[in-house]
Design a protein that fits this description.
alpha+beta, Rossmann fold, Isoleucyl-tRNA Synthetase, Domain 1, 5-stranded parallel β-sheet, 23 helices
C-alpha cells in the first residue's frame, strides 16, 4: 500500500530565539522527511511536514506588555525571526504557521464540544494564588518563594531548582508574585477540567501506551510510571483530571459559553498541528479528513523533546480518541543537547543562537551533519563537542567525501571534454547495494548508523582512487583509457554517496546535481549508473573546511551578547565557592601549572627512543561499555593483523574515555594505537595496547580528544 505521511515537530514558543538545542529536533525531523520525499511515488505518495509557533499563554502577554506592543505584534515579529532561522538551517516545512489562527480555534472548539458531549468536561471551583496588584491569577511558574524542603530562596511554585523537590504553590514559604513582587492572595475561581480519571480514558491510555508502534520502549515505561499502573493492584492507576482553563487576563482562545475563561495553552498547542495542516490542506487541495478520521490509513508522526512527552503521550491521544479523531501512529522523543559536555551556558558562550551561528559564517550543513552523526532512535542526550565537531566535519565531509570529486573531476573536464565513460564497474556494486541498509537506518531514525555506513563506503572509494592514482596516470601517454575509467568511476561513487547524504546535506546535494548535470536525486537512482557519454559541468569548490578560529569567534560572539551585569556574575549552573574551597582550588591550579612547567623541561629524547614506540593506524570495529567500570570503554581495534588462516584479527583495548565518548559513536572511526605496549591483565580482561588521545593537563580546556589520522590512512600503517 502506498504510504501517506503527516509529520510534525514540537511548536517553538513565540517568546524567544531559536538556539542550537532547539535545532536538534527540527534537523532530525527534516532529515527524516527529506528521506521520505526521496522515495518513489509508488512507495510514498505524500509526505507533509507542518509546524507552527506556539503563541498563547501568560508569558506572551507579559512579554508583549514589557515591549510596549500587542501580543499579536509580538508573535508576528517572532514568527518572522523563527522562519528566518529555520530557513537558514534548511528546515523545509510544507507549512510553518501559528496557533493563533482561525483553523486552530475551530479545531479546539470542536474537540472541546465533543469532549463535553462525552461527559468528560467538568467545571469546579478551585483556590489559586492571585496577584492583587496586577489583578490576575498566577501560573505556578509566576509564583516564587522559599522551598519548603530545603529553604532555598527564589524558587518557583512547582519545583525547587536547588534540591529538586516537587510541591504546589501553597507549600511555598513567604510566596510572592514574580510579576509584581506583591504577596499573592488565595482566591476561588471556576475552572474546567478534562476528566482523565474517567475509566474510559484510563483503560484507553493503558492500552494505547503499551502498543508497540506508539512509543519508544523507554518512553512507554515512563508512561506506565506516570499512569501509576500496577498489575498487582488490579490495574488501578491514579492519573488525575487535567485543568484546561485559565482566567482573564490571558492571551489565547476564549472557551465557548464561558466568558473570561480561556483554553490553557497546552490544550490548544498540539491542536496547532491540526490547524497548521488544515491551512495547508486549503492551499494544496489536500483531504484533511483523510488524515484525521478515526479509521485513517495515513500515518501521523510527532517528533518531540522528552521533556514534553507527558502532554503528547497522555493528554493529546486521550483528547483525540474521545473527540472522534485518529491518534498518532508514533511519537518520537529525543534527548537534550549539551555543549562540550555541559549544559548550554551563556557565561561560557555555549548558549548559541541559530542566528549567531549563521552570522559567524558557519555552514549550516556542518551542524546538520554533526547532529545526524550523533542521533539515533533513543531518548539519549547528545553532545556538541566543538573540537570534535571541527575534526569530524573536516575529516568526513572534506577529507573523505568531497575529496573524491576534487581529485578526479578536473581530469574529466580537461582531457575528456567533460564526458564520462562507462560507470558500471564491479567495485561499485557494494555502493549500490548499500542503498537498502542505509534506507532502513534512515527510516528507523538511526542516522548515526546511516552515516557510519556511508563514510565506510567513502573510505572504500578513496582506497580505489588511491590505488589507481589518476594524478599519476595523467602524466603518462597511452594510459588515457585507464585515466578516463578511474575518474568516471570515482565520479559515480561520488554521485552515490551524494544520494545517500542528500537528506542530511540538501543544499550540497543540489550543488552536486548541478555539477553532475542530473535531475534531483531520488532513492531509486542508486540502482542505475550514469551512462557512458554523460556530460558533467566544470567542477567548482563544494565545501570548505571548518577553521577553528570560526568556532572561537562563535563562542566569543555569544559571550559578548551578555549584558555587562550578567557577564560579571558567575555561571548560573556553577555554585559559589566558600573561601576555603576557593583557596584550595587556587592551590591546585598552581600545582598543576608547576607540573606542566616541569613536564616541559624534561630532557629531549633521541629519534631512536621515539622509534621504539610502534604507533599504528587503527579502525575501531566495535566498542561497548565495561560493566562495573566508571571510566572505561572496551574497544576492538583492527590494525591490519591477520590470523593464521588469513582472517582479520582485532585487538582488545580498555580506554579511559567514557566521560567523553559514546561507544556507539566510535564504531567505524580511525585512531592511533600504541601497538607494542606489553599486554596488561585487568579484572575486565586483557588490554592489548593503548589508543592515543589528547587532554589539557592544566585543566583550562577540559576534555579528552582522540587523535584521528587523515583521510586515506589504512589500518596497520605505521605512524612515524
Amino acid at each position: 500500500m502506498t504510504r501517506k505521511i503527516l509529520v510534525t515537530s514540537a511548536l517553538p514558543y513565540a517568546n524567544g530565539a531559536i538556539h542550537l538545542g532547539h535545532l536538534v529536533e527540527y534537523i532530525q525531523t527534516d532529515i527524516w522527511v527529506r528521506f521520505q520525499k526521496m522515495q518513489p511515488k509508488e512507495k510514498v505518495s505524500e509526505c507533509w511536514y507542518v509546524c507552527a509557533d506556539d503563541t498563547h499563554g501568560t508569558p506572551i502577554m507579559l512579554r508583549a506588555e514589557k515591549d510596549g506592543i500587542t501580543p499579536e505584534a509580538l508573535i508576528a515579529r517572532v514568527h518572522g525571526e523563527h522562519s528566518r532561522d529555520f530557513a537558514g538551517f534548511h528546515v523545509a516545512f510544507d507549512n510553518f504557521y501559528t496557533t493563533h489562527s482561525t483553523e486552530t480555534r475551530d479545531c479546539a472548539n470542536t474537540i472541546y464540544a465533543r469532549l463535553q458531549q462525552a461527559g468528560l468536561i467538568e467545571k469546579r471551583s478551585i483556590e489559586q494564588y492571585y496577584d492583587p496588584v496586577r489583578q490576575m491569577f498566577l501560573p505556578d511558574r509566576f509564583i516564587k518563594g522559599e522551598c519548603p524542603k530545603c529553604g532555598a530562596k527564589d524558587q518557583y511554585g512547582d519545583n525547587c531548582e536547588s534540591c529538586g523537590a516537587a510541591y504546589t504553590p501553597n507549600d511555598l514559604v513567604e510566596p510572592y508574585s514574580a510579576v509584581s513582587g506583591a504577596k499573592p492572595e488565595l482566591r476561588s475561581s471556576d475552572h474546567y477540567f478534562f476528566k482523565l480519571s474517567n475509566p474510559s480514558c484510563q483503560s484507553f491510555l493503558r492500552r494505547w501506551t503499551r502498543e508497540n508502534t506508539r512509543l519508544q520502549p523507554e518512553a512507554a515505561n515512563k508512561m506506565q510510571e506516570w499512569l501509576g499502573f500496577n498489575e498487582e493492584d488490579g490495574g488501578e492507576n491514579k492519573l488525575t483530571d487535567w485543568d484546561i482553563s485559565r482566567d482573564a487576563p490571558y492571551f489565547g482562545f476564549e472557551i465557548p459559553d464561558a466568558p473570561g475563561k480561556y483554553f490553557y495553552v497546552w490544550l490548544d498547542a498540539p491542536i496547532g498541528y491540526m490547524g497548521s495542516f488544515k491551512n495547508l490542506c486549503a492551499r494544496e487541495s489536500i483531504d484533511f479528513d483523510e488524515y484525521w478520521q478515526p479509521d485513517s490509513k495515513t500515518e501521523l508522526y510527532h517528533f518531540i523533546g522528552k521533556d514534553i512527552l507527558y502532554f503528547h503521550a497522555l493528554f493529546w491521544p486521550a483528547e483525540l480518541e474521545h473527540a472522534g479523531y485518529r491518534t498518532p501512529t508514533s511519537i518520537f522523543a529525543h534527548g537534550f543537547l549539551t555543549v562540550d559536555g555541559s549544559k548550554m551556558s551563556k557565561s561560557r558562550g555555549t548558549f548559541i543562537t541559530a542566528q549567531s551561528y549563521l552570522a559567524t559564517g558557519l555552514n549550516p550543513e556542518w551542524l546538520r551533519y554533526y547532529y545526524a552523526a550523533k542521533l539515533n532512535s533513543t531518548m539519549e542526550d547528545i553532545d556538541l563537542n566543538l573540537e570534535d565537531f571541527t575534526a569530524r566535519v573536516n575529516s568526513d565531509l572534506i577529507g573523505k567525501y568531497v575529496n573524491i570529486a576534487s581529485r578526479c573531476a578536473g581530469f574529466i573536464g580537461k582531457k575528456f571534454d567533460g564526458r564520462l565513460c562507462a560507470t558500471d564497474a564491479p567495485w561499485l556494486k557494494p555502493l549500490r547495494d548499500a542503498s537498502e541498509s542505509i534506507a532502513k537506518a534512515y527510516e528507523d531514525r538511526e542516522f548515526s548508523r546511516a552515516l557510519r555506513e556511508i563514510m565506510a563506503l567513502a573510505d572504500a572509494a578513496n582506497v580505489v582512487v588511491n590505488e589507481r592514482k589518476p594524478w599519476d596516470l595523467a602524466k603518462h601517454e597511452g594510459r588515457e583509457a585507464e585515466l578516463h575509467a578511474a575518474c568516471s568511476e570515482a565520479i559515480e561513487a561520488f554521485r552515490l554517496l551524494t544520494l545517500y547524504l542528500k537528506p542530511v546535506l540538501p543544499k550540497l546535494g543540489e550543488a552536486v546535481e548541478a555539477f553532475l548535470n542530473i535531475a534531483p536525486l531520488c532513492w531509486s537512482d542508486a540502482a542505475n549508473a550514469l551512462p557512458a557519454g554523460h556530460a558533467i559541468n566544470a567542477y567548482s569548490h563544494l565545501m570548505t573546511r571548518i577553521d577553528p578560529k570560526q568556532i572561537a569567534a562563535l563562542v566569543d560572539a555569544n559571550k559578548a551578547s551578555l549584558a555587562p551585569a550578567e557577564a560579571a556574575q558567575p555561571p548560573a549552573d556553577v555554585p559559589q565557592q566558600p573561601e576555603a574551597a576557593r583557596k584550595h582550588a587556587e592551590k591546585q591550579e598552581k600545582a598543576a601549572a608547576v607540573a606542566v612547567a616541569q613536564a616541559g623541561s624534561e630532557p629531549h629524547i633521541s629519534i631512536d627512543d621515539f622509534m621504539k614506540v610502534d604507533l599504528r593506524v587503527a579502525t575501531i570495529v566495535d566498542a561497548g561499555h565495561v560493566e562495573g567500570a566508571e571510566k572505561l570503554i572496551r574497544l576492538a581495534l583492527d590494525i591490519g593483523e591477520k590470523t593464521a588462516d588469513g582472517q582479520a584479527k582485532t585487538r582488545q583495548v580498555f580506554a579511559g574515555i567514557k566521560s567523553a565518548y559514546d561507544p556507539a559513536q566510535l564504531i567505524g572511526r580511525k585512531t592511533v594505537m600504541v601497538a607494542n605496549l606489553a599486554p596488561r591483565k585487568m579484572k575486565f580482561g586483557i588490554s592489548e595496547g593503548m589508543i592515543i588521545a589528547a587532554s589539557d593537563m592544566s585543566g583550562q580546556t577540559p576534555g579528552i580528544y582522540l587523535l584521528a589520522p587523515d583521510s586515506g590512512a589504512l589500518p596497520g600503517m605505521r605512524v612515524k
